[in-house]
Amino acid sequence: MTDAKTLAYINMYAVLGTLENLCELDPKASALLTNKKPISIAFDVKGGPVATITFKNGKCRMVDSILPDADIKIPFSSPEKFNGLIDGTVTPIPTKGFTKIPFLLKEFKKLTDLLSSYMRAEPEKLEDEEFFRISTSLMFYTICVAVAQIGNNDEIGKFSASHMVDGDIMISIADGPAATVRVRNHRLVTIKKAPENPRAVMEFSSIRLARDLFDGKVNAVACIGDGSIRMRGMISMVDNLNRILDRVGLYLA
Residue 196: which pLDDT band, with cuts at 50, 70 and 90? Predict the structure, then answer.
């Protein structure tokens, strides 16, 4: 079972939030953003998440608030409506920034289409080593951020988070990306870089193994057993993190 509100948080911070990483990893993405003057889009979901994404000079950054000077503001009457934007069944209507609509229809749409091509990659494209690396890295960041959203909003996820002690968990791919899941008073936040002093660590031995796990081709328990997933530190934190990870696939399917 999943719920629309949790999915909206995932779609906002884990899916749209990965546009930041897309622009860092793929020159084609950054080349779409030639605007020297920043353009910002504020998404306001009633009863759900809020965020502003700012695009400038080939980069984009998200903050989890509505910036008052955002160029475009798009409200959604419910989490379900916002989820419809992500799955393509709802056409948003801005309440501010009508003169900036061409940016929404062109650059922003091209960026989200490019992200989708990586997140739902065709098998033949994954044969290209660079495409494979970017696609898997983007999936990694999306999944790591989704963990925090599920731990904070999904009822089953919150139960697992309630058993986690304070501290930083490092999730990483050997010779690849790393992220921090920070636990404070049973609330989780993901930071897209390695922590300085992790209390627990879960590391995938290779980017190929990480991809096979993300695609459900290998069993995580078996990988822990053969050492291709390495864990150390406060193992109870990793155990509860793994329970939340089991929920990620349900929401991102």
Answer: very high
